[in-house]
Hints:
The protein is mostly helical. It is 60% helix and 3% strand.
Amino acid sequence: MASLSSIRTTRTRRAARPAPAPRAAPDAERVDNAPGHRTPPHPPTRGPGRNHYADLLRVCAIAAVVVGHWLLTDITYHHGHLGGRNSVEYVGWGRWVTLALQVLPVFFTVGGYVNAVSWTSHHARGTPWHAWVGARAMALLWPVVVYVVVAALGVTVALVAGAPARELDRAGWFVALHLWFLPVYLALILLTPLLLAAHRRWGLAVPAVMAALAGAVDLARVGGDVPVVGAANYLLVWGAIHQWGFSWLDRRLTRPRWLPAALAGVSAVLLTLLLWPGPFPVDMIGAGLRVNNTAPPSIALLAFAATQVGLLLTAEPRMAPRLERPARLRRLARLNGAVLTVYLWHMVPVILIALTLYPTGVAPQPDIGSGPWVALRVAWVAVLAIVLAPLALGVMWAERPLRKLPLGAGVAGRWAPVPLVAGIGATAAGLAKIAVDGFAPGGRIAVLGLALVAVGVSLTFLAGPRRGPEGGSGGGG
Length: 477
């Protein structure tokens, strides 16, 4: 989970026998459950290659991120000015809470699993890699486009209305900081065909090498005081975690059955050694620290993620059978279809409630960390959830027409991947800039970030052979 301040502080084979490929799923039982993919009204409760436990983990991970952000956000109103603080920086025991709130490794592991299932299925049907990547990326980007456009319009209206620059800057940053994971995830979608081929050749050696390289980067970054190299760990750490999803799919990570528990135990020991003598802090969101674990991600975060994922895979044999009831699967499918929308929009209620309740004095402001403050966190989360639920439903309804748009402009030939790669690169760069600077840096519209996103999404949408919204030429995603 990204913290409320960690991003801003970053300004300154042995040959193994190939695993059997999953059966290609028929169109009625699609396994293309990328974040943001909308599940049909009556989704299949069973399907080749579908792992409902993975769906459950993704839903729970996003729910934990949302609640975590809400708990850590402490809104203030003094002398006519709204502000916000990250409560972890003011509550002594708060940094230990991040061990329960940092769950994005689960999301990336599930992402690796479902990306491998989807690419394997479409590759078996003859889909070119760039067609799959384009459709997969757009399934992720459609909800993002809606969110970015609405946020940009909101900033424009606030500017015209004469909103104070400092408060507009802060509000624009609050509703942008959680976009940080999208550039990383887009890069992993782009690299999935290559990374999956590497996995089939070298297996768990691939994430092991990534982990070793991440450790070397941290040695240079922290021990050698060369912070510029830290950016490599965004791909190495999150890429290794994404790679675990491939090993989950072909059972290299779960057979024999004791292996996940062993992974969790060894990783927990390594994590303790990294945190106790140092130099890494226990805080797994990296708020306001010189050395942090998320911006850029550290080897300590990777050890923490291995512990977390090992425990969850250990629990799979007991938990998965409990999901196999039609009513539960229908509820899970509906929740799974809403995860990206909920994630994107969950900070908007914070701004709406702050503007409504704090200046009017309706919302109390007890001392941060006090008993009343802790008790009010429950009411705070409940009110935000009540506001978010209809907001998310309305947004999902508004997004439906976008899903019907055919992708691609008929680009073919060996140069077909070029506009796609350029588009994903520009989109990732634009989203990264917005995540760091916000939608209104210095009280002004984020022109460069928004322009990069507009150009990048347009190129991604138009690149490749023309196909239907579900990948009519085999590029669904």
